[in-house]
Structure formats: C-alpha cells, structure tokens
Amino acid sequence: MPVAARETVAADAPHILVVDDDTRLRELLRRYLVGEGFRVTTAADAAEARQRLAGIAFDLIVLDVMMPGESGLELTEALRRTHDIPIVLLTARGAPEDRIAGFEHGADDYLAKPFEPRELLLRIRTILRRTAPTPGTAEGKVTLGEAVFDPERGTLTRGQETVRLTGGEAALLAALARRPGEVLTREEIAAALGQEDAGERAIDVQVTRLRRKIEPDPREPTFLQTVRGRGYVLRPR
After folding, report:
1. What is the set of domains in the chain, with CATH numbers?
2. Contact 198, 210 (CB under 8 A)
3. What percent of the chain has pLDDT over 90?
4. What angle do CA 195, 201, 205 make, to 5 degrees?
5. pLDDT tens across 136-161, in order?
6. What crossing angle do the helices spanning 200-214 and 167-177 adopt, rounded to 10°?
7. What pLDDT, on a 0 to 100 scale, did the predictor assign at position 206?
8. Residues 6 or more apart from 24 whose CB is under 8 A from it?
9. Dihedral, CA atoms, 134, 139, 143, 147, nearest 10 degrees?
10. What distance in Å separates the CA atoms of residue 204 and residue 232, rounded to the nearest whole number?
C-alpha cells in the first residue's frame, strides 16, 4: 500500500474513523488517508470505536467486519439506531451473501480484502460527496404523503420532525427522486450509488430499508414501488 508522507491536514477536512484489529493495516490506512488530506482517528475494536464516537463527530467510518468481541456487522447495526454516519465495511469475505448481509445491517458500502487503497479512497470520496449538504434546492422537494424530501440536502422531514436517513438511504432516495415516475433498473440505481458491483439483491435490501422510513406500510408500498421484471419507481404524492 502506498503511503504518502504528509501528516498535516486542514482542521476542517473530513474526519474518518478507521476501526480494524490488524495493527499494521490500521496504521497503513491512517497514514494513507492522512496523506490524501483526511483527518483520521483509529480504533482497534468496537469498544474503542464507541469511546471515540462518544467524543468526536466523524464524517465516515471504515470498519472491519471480522473483529474479536463485537463484530463490525453488530456494531453497524447498533450504530444505525442512533447514528446516520456513513459506514464502509471491510472484510475478507467477498461473497454476494456477505455483501448483502453488510447492507442489511445498515452499511453504505462494502469492500472485500485485499483491496487497492485507491479504490477505498474513491469510495470514501463518492460517499462524502453524495452525503455533503448542498446549498439550495435546484432539483425541487418531493412530497411523500406527510413527508417531504429535499434531494439536494438529503433530508427527509415529517411535520417538524427530521427522519433519520443513512447516507446510503439518502443517496438512494435522491437518485429515485430526481426521476419521479420513471422506472429505474437495479443497474441504473447501482450506478447512481457508485455500487456497480453490489449485485441486484444488495439493491433490493437497500430499497427495503428505505421503505421502512418512507412508507406507512412497507409491505404495501405506495411511494417506492416495484415494477416486476424492470426495477423500481418513486411515485410522489
């Protein structure tokens, strides 16, 4: 893994938490990401990650799945109850069912080991770019029953309440909201999310998670509908 020499980064640079029990990999990732202009904090396991999260507002977590004690999947699922911070899972298991499990637990992306650090960097930048607040509402807000979604800001509100969306859920809803009433194939959705290798089942899992946030009855969706044999369509109303 190439390691850049720079160790000083801007105070307002995105802050990433790297969680991995492999000391060597953890340090290599820290130095590499710092060299690319990120602030980086590390943790050796889930317990230490929780301590870091209690005192610091991170922009993204890079999280190993296979760790002693609480696994990365378990930590991801727990964090999703209280945090919408983007999470990229790292794992030695790259089978489709493992990737699907990652999305089911609430991950925004999933990268199998061994990986090229440049690929991780690109995925991190893609996620941060699509989750960053954007001034203005050029694309227009979308009404979903009592809820209103702002594609540019990635925010969903219901009355005075803000509905918590993960970065992945906001990106998925934005991709659909920018083409309301138009059927998007799973391949088109994956491309919009930068997850071309995710697989159809992984997209289905993310749609299921999103429906829990926007549908009165996720089992009988009225807004995010399945078009059999074609894909998904968002029908605002």
Report:
1. 15-131 (3.40.50.2300), 142-234 (1.10.10.10)
2. no
3. 59
4. 85
5. 333 478 899 999 998 878 889 998 89
6. 90
7. 92
8. none
9. -10
10. 9
The two three-digit tokens of residue 60, written as one number: 């993204």
**What gap in Å lies between CA 52 and CA 15, rounded to an integer?**
12
Q: Which residue is listed with tokens 């009404």? A: 143
Kindly report whether the peptide bond that precedes residue 2 is cis, defined as omega within 30 degrees of 0: no
Residue 146, both tokens: 């009592």
Cα distance between residue 177 and residue 139, in whole Å: 9
pLDDT computed for residue 5 by the predictor: 43
Confidence grade of residue 77 (pLDDT, cut at 50, 70, 90)? very high
**1 near 117, Cβ under 8 Å?**
yes
Which one-letter DSSP state was computed for residue 136? S
Angle at 127 between CA 124 and CA 58, to 5 degrees: 75
Residue 60 · residue 29 · CB < 8 Å: no
Using alpha carbons only, give the angle 84, 118, 86 rounded to the nearest 5 degrees. Answer: 0
Structure tokens at 68: 């002693």
Q: Cα-flanking dihedrals φ and ψ of residue 136, to 5°? A: 85, 170
What HEC string does 8-76 produce?
Answer: CCCCCCCEEEEECCCHHHHHHHHHHHHHCCCEEEEECCHHHHHHHHHHCCCCEEEEECCCCCCCHHHHH
